[in-house]
Specification:
Layout lengths: L2 H15 L12 H11 L4 H14 L3 H5 L3 H8 L5 H18 L8 H4 L7 H12 L8 H10 L8 H11 L5 H14 L18 H8 L2
Amino acid sequence: MTRKERFEGVIRYFTQHQPVAETELSYTSPYELMVAVILSAQCTDKRVNLITPSFFRRFPSIESLAKAEVSDVFELIRSCSYPNNKSRHLVGMARKLRDEYSCKVPSEPEELQKLPGIGRKSANVIASVVFHKPALAVDTHVFRVSARLGLTWRAKNPFEAEKQLVQHIPDALIPIAHHWLILHGRYVCQARKPRCGECGLTQWCNFFQKSKSKE
């Protein structure tokens, strides 16, 4: 099977069986998604969604967060992983948006990465989810699933995986493709024990085909 055929099969399957795939982070604005994305680093979406309601009641806008003390932010997010760093990033992000972007969240990944706490993956999430840009975020789930399926080949890091994936996924599908792969990784193609018996992608999956041939 060629790489092109594999991509076509996987995309066709997801298009038919999962036409709607969205982030599991709760948000109502670009600002709220940015906060949730910063909090989600090394933390589950479920935990983040427990933290953000009280956070947004206290800091409902970029302006209010920009005026906050780091210690006040820490108290609200202390149940999240790495609360010290994230508290500083959140306040720093808001102040930079206030001072340099007129409290408007930029839409381009390159601009987003200039903000504290926003790396390439986070920038791609925000750009694709809120602004529908053809930016593909590669987290641990996407990296694992794309390698197992055979969509990527010997990618050494998320950036290499991203470059390989976007070569074969149409721009219009890149925003949803991230969610296809991440949700598949969370609930089916899990890290320690992939649930191949429940997977509809086995006919295109390099990992499954190799495992089957060893039986």
